[in-house]
Predict the 3D structure of the following.
Amino acid sequence: KIKFRESFRPFAPAVLRERVHEYFEMRQDQDSPYMLLVAPVQQAQRVSNGGSKAGSESDLGLDAVKQVRSTVPAITHVDHSARVQTVDAERFPRFYKILKAFEARTGCPVLINTSFNVRSEPIVNSPADAYRCFMATELDCLVIENCLLYRTEQPAAASVDRAAYLGSFALD
């Protein structure tokens, strides 16, 4: 709904560094601050798909990508791996505080992480790019530094030609 990309491409997880070992087969002190490591999702976080095992006949073709594989399905690849970003307070103080607040509300120390763009569009490079992408997609809100914008409160919300904007990029 937001990235308009292939369903077989999960997002990357951003996880509190001190809790990485609970969700991924990584040491608690193992760093991956720039999403350079791929790690298996912990067995304890994996879920059963009606008794089928990954790689079985019922798990072939496009049906394989539609199955929920873990408690964090948006970031779990078909092979139960994920491209992990660890977040610590020293390197990413603001993002760390966001993850801690999310964890306090939900019990989950993991959020999805992805580039800010629509599939085939260049990555957002300015506040104007961010606003244009925000208004043309299904995002509910946009945060730029200390500013929080809600879609429903934007005066131009009704006038954005989403079809024209999205039609300029090669989507699924």
